[in-house]
Design brief:
This protein has 4 helices and no strands. The protein is mainly alpha-helical. The longest helix has 15 residues.
C-alpha cells in the first residue's frame, strides 16, 4: 500500500509531492528486506531522478537506499 502511495506522489509532478516521495523512498529503501521496487522509484525511467522539478531530481540523485 505504501509503495502505491509513493508512486502516486512521484507521478504527481509537484515539487512538494516529489520531495515527500524522495524522503519516504529513502527511509523505506534503507530497511533490510525491502522490495527492489523501492529502489526503482529513484532510478526508473519515470523515477524521481527524472522528475520535472530540479529540486526533486537533485534530492533523488543524492538519496542513498543501499550501500554496496
Amino acid at each position: 500500500m505504501a509503495l502505491e502511495a509513493v508512486r502516486a506522489l512521484a507521478q504527481d509532478g509537484a515539487r512538494v509531492a516529489g520531495l515527500f516521495a524522495v524522503g519516504l523512498t529513502t527511509a523505506v529503501g534503507r530497511r533490510p528486506g525491502r522490495p527492489p521496487e523501492w529502489r526503482e522509484l529513484l532510478r526508473g525511467l519515470r523515477g524521481l531522478r527524472r522528475h520535472a522539478e530540479t529540486e526533486v531530481r537533485d534530492a533523488a540523485l543524492v538519496a542513498v537506499t543501499h550501500h554496496e
